[in-house]
Amino acid sequence: MRARRGRAPHDWDQASRQVADAYFPHELRPLGGGREPRLTLRTLDLGPVLVGHVGWGADAGIECDYPGAYEVNLPLTGHLESRGARGPVSSVPGQGTIFRADTPSLISHWDATCTVLGVKFDSAWLDRESERIIGTDRSGLRAELPDQLQLDAGRAHAWRQVVGSLAAHLQNPDLFSDVGPVREQLAGAVAAGFLLASCPDSGEGAPARPRSIRRLLGELHDDPGRAWTAVEMATVAGTTARRLQEGFRRWVGTTPTEYLTDVRLRRAHADLVGPAAPTVSDVAARWGFSSASRFAAAYRKRYGRPPSQARDWHVDA
């Protein structure tokens, strides 16, 4: 991961170069009398996914072709006016503007008070994820994506929460920098959440069948500590992530991720009350949790006590 730091530039050319280095080359046009920018730019790099805060601190217009990557801009403050494939789009907090890869686009007004949470996806990678997650190829994805995403409910709200949790670590740019599998898992989660939230279900294709689900269940029980992604689980089941979720809900009564978390927690609990007395951090890492704090929160929710009390609780019981 990487973060952009340092003194905010007060020169339009310098500010433009910094944003171009992090996101995309573009044509930047100051609006409203040429007020100097006060750039906000902090990013976390997950490989094929880049998450960051961007704000110009002054009114601006931007022309960009979004070469090689999709972009989703979620205003945290202010408003963002642009022209999408289907007409004008104006986004405020609670909404997100979607820009398609390799498509000339215009942001007609990025207002001075607007800071966005920007999510950039490598286009070739997201196209492949789209085929495996929702069964839509490159041309289909570009046709299905809306110009704007409402983030106040359902899957879109859940995706916004995931992205927001990553953005909370912008002050800690080295988080997971040396743990490749965790970065891949986080990038996959961001992609899966975005695709499932933004692309409507055509209703084509049957949910995963019991035989496919049993095959996946066997793999999850054999190796629950693996850095599983939604795509990898769907590949094992021989279907898309969307159809796998439908089949899991129908035949198992939960989602694949929830089921995997339960398996991991049961294995972790057995370790904590066993004779080896491992640390909470060691148990979290062994069973595929991205951090000890996330493991502790899931454990407390499942068992009603923190993992540090597992042994005492077991003895008392």
Explain what the structure shows.
One of its GO terms (molecular function) is DNA-binding transcription factor activity. Residues 214-313 form the HTH araC/xylS-type domain. With 317 residues, the protein is α+β, with helices and mostly antiparallel strands. It folds into two domains: 12-167, Jelly Rolls (Sandwich); 205-317, Orthogonal Bundle (Arc Repressor Mutant, subunit A), CATH 1.10.10. 43% of the residues lie in helices and 20% in strands. It has helices at residues 12-22, 123-133, 138-144, 154-167, 180-198, 210-222, 230-237, 241-251, 256-272, 280-286, 292-303, 310-316; strands at residues 27-30, 40-45, 49-55, 60-64, 69-77, 80-84, 87-91, 95-99, 105-110, 115-122, 148-150. The protein has a six-stranded antiparallel beta sheet with strand order 2-3-10-5-8-11, with helices on both faces. A five-stranded antiparallel beta sheet has the order 1-4-9-6-7, with helices on one face. Helix 4 runs antiparallel to helix 5 (180-198). The longest helix has 19 residues, at 180-198. Mean pLDDT is 87; it is low at 1-5.
Concise synopsis of the structure shown:
The protein is of the alpha+beta class and 317 residues long. The chain is 43% helix and 20% strand. GO terms for molecular function: DNA-binding transcription factor activity; sequence-specific DNA binding.
